């Protein structure tokens, strides 16, 4: 029996441009107890990408995103981290980990390769 695919979550935030250097410093490295809380929440393969001008894109995988969010919302460590991080973001109401704008996934190579191998969504069927 195969396990269900993890949920892929991508989000965006906007970092104040004048705080970019400090934001990067704060993540080099992240507090060890915060890293442990992220892992304990079930999030994995978590990355942040920062574009020029402060556009921040985050990505992680999780089996149960609602449970991970609940875990982190109840974590005193995450509450302290998010309270310190909140000032870095433009137009944010609430904790950054709970107020980020989720993005819609429109393509995933693995999923399409699996679908192609099983014959679903076969483009050649449409051509006839």
UniProtKB/TrEMBL annotation:
The record's annotation in InterPro entries points to: Dimeric_a/b-barrel, Rham/fucose_mutarotase
* Superkingdom, taxonomy of origin: Bacteria
Any one Gene Ontology MF annotation carried by this entry is: racemase and epimerase activity, acting on carbohydrates and derivatives
Gene Ontology biological process terms in this record: rhamnose catabolic process
Q: Which Pfam families match?
A: rhaM
Q: Which protein are we looking at? A: L-rhamnose mutarotase
Please name the source species: Microbacterium radiodurans
């Amino acid at each position: 029996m195969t396990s269900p695919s993890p949920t892929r979550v991508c989000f965006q935030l906007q970092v104040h441009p004048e705080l970019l250097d400090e934001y990067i410093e704060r993540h080099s490295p992240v507090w060890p107890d915060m890293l442990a809380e992220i892992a304990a929440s079930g999030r994995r393969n978590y990355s942040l990408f920062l574009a020029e001008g402060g556009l921040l894109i985050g990505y992680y995988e999780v089996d149960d995103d609602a449970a991970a969010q609940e875990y982190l919302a109840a974590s005193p460590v995450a509450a302290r981290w998010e309270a310190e991080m909140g000032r870095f973001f433009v137009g944010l109401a609430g904790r950054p980990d709970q107020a980020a704008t989720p993005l819609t996934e429109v393509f995933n190579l693995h999923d399409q390769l699996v679908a192609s191998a099983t014959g679903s969504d076969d483009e050649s069927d449409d051509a006839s």
